Every structure is written in C-alpha cells, then in structure tokens.
Amino acid sequence: MFRVDCVIANEEDVQKCLGIEAEGVGFSADHLSIDSYERLAEQVNERYADISGLVMTMREGISADRNGWSVDLDALNGFHASRKYHIDGIIDRVGDGGGFNVGLIHGVLNNMDSKEALGVAVAASALKNSLPVVFNLTGLTEVKNLWAEAISIVTSDKQIKQ
Q: A single GO molecular function, which one (predicted)?
C-alpha cells in the first residue's frame, strides 16, 4: 500500500478491498473470535509490511438497537483487543465511526500508548450510539470514565449499567 501508515477498517473491508480472507471473522460468524482477527492482521502485515497500524472494528449485530462493539489494534508494539461494549437501545449509529476515529486521533496526538488510545476511541464510539445526532457530543471526561470503569453496557438514556 503506497504511503499508508494506519488502516482503519472492518473485516469485510480487509477481505474485499485487500483480498485477504480469514475464517471466523465477519457478520455471519457465530462468534467473533479475537484469534481470527489477529490471524487476519498477521496476513495483512505479511502482505503490507509498511503499515504501522491496522485497526479492525468488531460489531456483533444482535438486533437493530442492540450491538456488541469492540476493536482490535495491531500496531508496532503488538496486538491489542479493546473491552467489548454491549450497547442496548441504540438511537443512531451514524457517526459512531467518526467518533471512534476522533478518539483514536486524540489519543495519538496526546501521546497515549496504543492500548489507552484504543480504549478512549472505542468508548467514544460506544457512547455516540446513545445520541440522536451525527456527531459525538460527549466530553472527554465521559469517555474516559466509561473506559476506566469496569462497565460494559451503554443504554440509550446514557445510563451506564454494570
């Protein structure tokens, strides 16, 4: 890949755009296996050695308003899997990718390590699903609180449940 530093994609993008197949990944998989995503990342790294980071989103579509949401990051310092959030009562998914990207960029620009930047990005994206607007109105404090706590369910009324 010419002049690409970091790829942010889901497994379907990787498979269809880069032509790299892996078993156990994708919307049709019974269970999203982190090991399968790690193998897919290894295949991307073998083919595109110049990429310093590969971010793959893992959305489990339970229903229109319930999703599992996590992200894997394969960077120069290793493979990292985020916490999985169970999002219940999704109001609007439009903009959650942008919320993720902004969180990741924030982490990189503020010299967070890969795991912390990933955690902030995934939490920002999970919170965005509870908002009826395209852009993320949550603040950094809310995002960091969600990421730092041992919580995994985000509901549409923005109440966090353990």
A: catalytic activity
